[in-house]
Amino acid sequence: MLFPVILAGGSGTRLWPLSRQFYPKQVMPLTGQDTMIQETVNRLKNVPEIGAPIVLCNDTHRFMVAEQLRRSDSQSATIVLEPVGRNTAPAVAVAALMGLEKDNDAVLMVMPSDHYIADGRAFLEALAVGRIFAEQGALITFGVVPDAPETGYGYIKKGGPPDIPGQVPPASDGVAMIDSFVEKPDRETAEAYLKSGEYFWNSGMFMFKAGSVIDELERFAPEIVSQCREAVAKGRSDLDFFRLDETAFTACPSDSIDYAVMEKTDKGVMVPLSAGWNDLGSWEALWGVGGKDDQNNVIEGDVVIHDVTNSYLRASSRMLAAVGIDNHIVVETADAVLISPRHRAQDVKAIVDQLTQDSRKEALSHKTGYRPWGTCEQLVVSQQFHVNRLTVRCGEKLSLQKHQHRVEHWVVLSGTARVTKGEQTFDLVANESVYLPAGVEHRLENIGDNALDVIEVQTGNFLGEEDIERLEDVYGR
Fold this sequence. Notes:
The protein is α/β, with parallel strands linked by helices. It is built from eleven helices and 30 strands.
């Protein structure tokens, strides 16, 4: 059985201000209707003998990831919560251990959740070739056939023909042993790599039998395996998630699967991949894969331009207008605007670092926050009062809570709300409201057939999240 392993723990800071720590790029629809996680899951849906995905993410993103999987009809996925980030080798070890619990001959297809594949058929053909080698004990990495001297990717140098016992599959031209992994090169070196035909971009995607990768991890990084075994054994189920034991996983060494195993093993095989792959690691990358107008611009949202060429322009919350620019990135969100020459797109991370250093909330979250029950959009924020718009999905409800320092007013815009206020429970519809004094237990629930929209006005001498005292919560927060 083949099990997709989806690594969904990143924050995508180079796509700021769209991607942020609390709402990363993998839960966004960047290249089409589906989000990046949904595209990753759907990519393998028609593969024969495929099991439910194993998805690794952090606690902050868990409900967003679960919602994306639900919308992709992947409710049977195992969602593993990492208490801390420990890079890809521990993530692969955990997935392999859990895969072996499902099937002694489990094969893992390890994929980051934020990659773009233009040619799905070519991807599946490469996967089929890799699967045959993996089932014979090889550790597969997919090397992207380069079409440019890219300096932002690591490279793989191919070696000789596969030295794997067993049948060599058809359509395996170009498959080779791994000679070496190479760090990101300078421009001159990258051009030499491209000209030689011996080097491929490192896609960060892998395939191997769960037992084979555990054996190699035991050989080269035994402490990772021992800590991950303990983290899984002492882990626990929590609603739709599996929480790794925090103490054991935190003690696990942090390392990538490339360094920990693939650079050292003598079983590494590279399968060429020519499928329009891109890791969407920057705004320049999004411009590269986007649909262009007749002036070579990629335009998303409500954008009006005059004499603009070779640029990427994206509007999220209002009209964006641009005049007379060339080779630029312009991205608008409700609380931030980014302007950068395309060739400086990688430097956006420096802005995020500065915002983080200054403790600016724009580094972490949008004005619209995503909750397990829906969304909370900040409309007005001041020292004296906050005004929010709450959108609660059908059948969902907020925690039963109270506040010591603030009072709240709820006004229903649309839908049917069930309100708990102290000992009272009653329903409200559009244009009806309720006042919630400080210290009174309260809860909001959507009992209608459509989304519930509510305006929330908070007033008081302290309006921080620390003033929320949860008494009961169906989401285990």
